[in-house]
Amino acid sequence: MSLALDLSFSHHQGRWRLPGSWAGRDFPDLRMYRELLLAAERGCLDMVFFGDGTGIPSTYGASIDPAVEWGIGFPRQDMSPFIAALAQETQHIGFGLTYSSTFMHPFYVSRLLNSLDIVTAGRMAFNVVTSSRGADAANYGFEELMDHDARYRRMEEFVEVCQELWRSVDRDAFVWDRETGMVAEPGSIRAIDHKGEFFTVAGPLNSVPSPQQAPVLIQAGGSPRGIRASAGFADVVFGGAFAEADRVRHRTLLDEELLAAGRDPARVGILWDLHLIVGDTPGDARRRKEQLADLLPPEASAAQFAHNTGYDFAQLPARFTLAELQAEVIAKQASPMGFRDLVNEHGADTELSREEFFDSLWKVATGYEHTVAGSAAEVADYLEESYESTGSRGGFMIAHPQVTPRDLIDVVGLLVPELQRRGRFRTRYDGTTLRDTLGVPAFA
Predict the structure, then answer these.
(1) Residues placed in the known binding site for FMN
(2) Exposed site from 72, 186, 243, 366, fewest CB < 10 Å?
(3) Region of 410 on the Ramachandran plot (φ > 0 left; ψ -120 to 50 alpha; else beta)
(4) Residue 234 sits in a domain of what CATH number?
(5) Do 270 and 387 touch, CB atoms closer than 8 A?
(6) Distance (Å, rounded) from C-alpha 163 to C-alpha 106?
(7) pLDDT exceeding 70 applies to what percent of the chain?
């Protein structure tokens, strides 16, 4: 199985102050990331992954103050310069970088990723996302969110343009002939002349092809429309489901869409979102899980949930049903995914008070309900069962360790050796690129 490490929120939602976190170093100290990358590479992990957002959460109470005070989705950096530096400290581990197809331009992003793939010697992945958060949209001149289906059409065209640009320069285009002075064969570099619904791009890319020619493409759509989009181009899918039945359903729908797109389902794995705490003993792991209960005040949890769903929970009525609330979230073109856990816990038609609703949010904000806590053997049992039930393709994305660096050190020191003992995880890297590590076909 594959194992990736999601560092998108390693310092958010109060994690930075739990026992086992760094003392004397604060985000975004490059030395922190260097220690994490070297530890992850010692454990032979496939890659580290950086999600992103460009707006400070401001939906709750129409203010950024709660997010700023409690560190909810804030602060964040563009991680591309960090990756360029960290690539010089490592040799094998890959890097996943996120940019929004809703706001960015494909020529800029394709050229940047081409350069990063060169700097990392072929270890880049591009996490292609659509954006459903109002604070991000406002920074790019949007007064409201783009329609859900339009976001996915734009993403599909965005990826199409990027792929056309990466193909616009042949792998062997550059000859650098010192005798004749020829730099590149003119016929090996071609314009793309793309004219679509959202983009007009002449091309070609004015760059040297990178080791992979194109980065590994990752996409995380969980709706039927998102799954269809990921089946069209993703090399690896990031799966957000936690319940086993939901994972099996996602895998089944993805396989159907892959076949419809003329692609081999056996070649496209899913990395399942995974919150975990590995302890020396089961009791130690579960004790540390309970620390999450006191991590955030209700206002901070509400600010995070409001940012993700686009609904201002400061305006909640005294009593309501989750079904009513979810309908309003969907109408705002935001993401209703976070409601699934609350609906499963309470029932869509159960009437809740404002106070009862807020008491539930800390579990969503901290990932408490989905955190797998146990000994290395117990966690390995869970991973094996889930891996097999979803087709034994892909693996897991260890989501922003609850405590950094403690939880990563325990993964590398306790869980990885257990998986290796069972023959479930590599003991060394084979190949030189991230495509080699993930078993992803070459870009064609």
Answers:
(1) 52, 98, 148, 152, 223
(2) 186
(3) alpha
(4) 3.20.20.30
(5) no
(6) 9
(7) 97
Mean of the per-residue pLDDT values for the chain?
93
How deeply is 231 buried, as exposed, middle or buried, from its count of CB atoms within 10 A (0-12, 13-18, 19+)? Answer: buried
Cα separation of 354 and 437, whole Å? 48
CA angle 376, 4, 417 (to 5 degrees): 30
Query: What is the enclosing helix (H) or strand (E) of 236?
Result: strand 236-239
Residue 282 CA to residue 308 CA, distance in Å, equals: 33
Q: Is 153 helix (H, G, I), strand (E, B) or coil?
A: helix
Q: How far is the C-alpha of 2 from the C-alpha of 18, rounded, in Å? A: 28
Q: Which residue has the tokens 């993964």?
A: 411
pLDDT tens for each residue of 357-385: 888 888 888 889 899 999 999 999 999 99
What's the pLDDT tens digit per position in 92-122? Answer: 999 999 999 999 999 999 999 999 999 999 9
Distance CA 50, CA 10 (A): 10
Token pair listed for 252: 């089944």
Q: What is the Cα 167 distance to its own chain's centre?
A: 25
> Is 338 a residue whose pLDDT tops 80?
no
Q: Is residue 380 part of a domain?
A: yes
Annotated binding site: 52, 98, 148, 152, 223
Q: Is the peptide bond before 28 cis (omega within 30 degrees of 0)?
A: yes
Domain with 132 in it:
2-285+370-438
Q: Is residue 34 part of a domain?
A: yes
Q: 200-201 and 319-321 as β-strands: parallel, antiparallel, unpaired?
A: unpaired
Residue at 339 is within a domain: no
> Highest mean pLDDT range out of 259-273, 316-330, 345-359?
259-273
The total of structural domains in the chain comes to 1
User: Is the pLDDT confidence value at 336 over 70?
Assistant: no
The model's pLDDT over 146-182, given as tens digits with 9 standing for 90+, comes to 888 999 999 999 999 999 999 999 999 999 999 999 9
Q: How far, CA to CA in Å, does 317 sit from each of 119, 177, 353, 372?
A: 53, 73, 8, 34
- For the chain, helix, strand, coil in percent to 5 are 45, 15, 40
The verdict on residue 397 lying in a domain is yes
Mean pLDDT for 316-336 is 75
How many residues belong to the chain? 444
Look up residue 347 and give its two tokens: 């029932």
Give CA–CA dist 124/94, Å, rounded.
6
